[in-house]
Design goal:
mainly alpha; two-stranded antiparallel ribbon; Rossmann fold; 8 strands; 4-stranded mixed sheet; 33 helices
Amino acid sequence: MIKEDVRMKKWAPRVLLAAALAGLSAFLLKGDVWTFWTWWLLAFLMGMVAMPVTGRLFAGFEDKGWMFSKVTAIAVSGFLTWFLVAVKIIKFTTMTCIVVTLVCAAASLILYCREQKAGFECIPFAHLDLVYAEELLFFTAFLLWTYFAGFHPAAYGTEKFMDYGFMEAMMRSKTLPATDLWYSQGKINYYYGGQYFAVFLTKLSGAKVELTYNLMRTFVAGLAFAMPFSLVHQMVTDRLGRIRTGWKKALPSVTGILAGISVSIAGNMHYVVYGQIIPFIQKLKGEEVSSYWFPDATRYIGFNPDVEDKTIHELPCYSFVLGDLHAHVVDIMFVLLLLGLLYAWMKKVRTMELSGESMSRREFWKKQLLMPQLLAAGALLGMFHWTNYWDFVIYFVVTCGAALFMNIIGQKGKIRWVLGVTAAQAVEILTLATVIILPFTLQFDTSNMVQGIALAKHHSLLHQLLVLWGLPGILTILFVVSLLIEKLRGAEQKSLYHLLTSIRLPDLFAVLMGLCAIGLVLIPELVYVRDIYENGNARANTMFKLTYQAYIMFGMTMIYAIFRLLVIGKNKILKVLAFIGLFLFVWTCGYFGNSVHSWFGTVWKSSQYKGLNATAFLETDFPEDVNGIRWLKENISDAPVVLEANGDSYSEYERVSAMTGLPTIMGWYVHEWLWRGDLADLNAKIEEIKEIYTSTDETRVKELLDEYNVSYIFVGSCERNKYGADLNNDLLKGLGEVVFQDSEYPTYIVKIN
């Protein structure tokens, strides 16, 4: 009875807090809260059911990988569904998504029963406080970003037409890849995996794309806070060991929260320098104070000063505010899962005897090549081909780096064995990654996107590198140097083997992430991948994709380094520098407030919350077209070709195909140029689209409609603006039945006979 009373007193405040958060979510999200709750509950249940798998992979974690389990479940069930669809075993329907997910759940439950018989506990009953805290943090971050999204929900501008259109196209398609909505004669030729997972969860939840487009990116934003928390919390716990007493008990949680903030919310020193310090100096001098626009932090090198070499260097907070559901954004959760797996693997390996001298050759290679974490990492790397190919290249190197470090330790520094085992593991990972993704790569043509590697002709200014990456870079270097001095000073043997053996695992993992991050920042200063943007934006895509991942790894390394230097280190100068670093990091978090206010407006006024509907903007931005677009979406099944006027990328054109997922002959010129490469073909299609809309030769128009298998012709605002008086309405209406005519505007839709 006494124990029950104690338990009630312990959990009652937590239950009340959870209830308060649920009530707050209902108040903030209004009618959208049901979809939000459904999405959160779906992830919660999928993660819980997947714990027998995740608990094995993250056995060395106090929480058994609780927060990573959500992403594990999504990755396994989602990827398996896609694979079976891609090899044409099943159709891509809501029912097949549900059935495959249930089959995965059943397999996980069978594994659970076996684990129970074997005495393995996959559920972290001993650390339910931690599980509760993680779930609370995730729910809060998810809610916060979802609420903000409701102030600017429109899937319009930047890459949103593409991202939303991909989702709508896949929702319509029973096969994958779906027909390219902007190239009706071909399939999507892009790593569309991120948008696929959004569609997969949409089908599982029974929600509408109009809402889940925004929910997917806020879901990722929530995970981008909670997953770094879990990983760094475990790293700090492992580093403190048994000295977690008194105030140090709070260090893992505090550091974990800071890591979550660092990855998902913080900005960089660009905001501090150009948003705070320079305006302050200008104010003191009585000069006109410069305003700060948050995208400038991602368009700095090449823009300030203005030079020929324009670059992109985005960061997660900017992505979450902007709202593009692009490949690099969705892949954040899978990247964090991989990093967590690598740490779990390294932790397991550190406790094993893996020297070739102590066991038979068969047993030796079995242990080296059949470790579950390594196999899971290989599968994830394969999936990166499909979700964001750049991440495959980056994290294959990171994974091989982790393997090299651990093999130097495991093989006791013997070069032959170190190189042999590392090479074997690299080949295994590469082979596994290549094989499982063959249904995608066999259809994916990258020849137009990548045109080789070239030496960098332009270089960033030193102060620009320091502004963007100086803070985490310097803290990482200070940490590594201090670690080297600490371990090498007075050491009898100064070999690499003895050095790595003497370094505690959390320190070693932080070093690995930090060095990889520094490397990713430096690579675009040396070489770049050639593509269609080479004239004027040569390094842009390379810098964008590499430094984005550098930011993620830097985010966790920087916070861990601050903890390490402040709490564990003994050098007073380094402690002062670490404290200054902590102060500057907190200052960079002001970027979050600035960007949220700039993009979303007065978020503290809940009455101005607009809702999550990503297509609501059609009512105000496309009043002449909205009813026609709604008619198509509500009345047309499958994916017949709907002709609309073509336009350039990032324009208002292709609003019909983007909002409905229905393919058109040709759209967003630069995007299709990147994906297809055949400019002559694209230019020919543009002329033939014009010919259909403006020609008076009915025979020729019918020939073109037959050639492209056009079922509907849309005539709205963009068509009238583009073709003006040349638009041949009479001929177009005579080609078939006018199935839609707007009552207020001259917008109409013709169904071709």
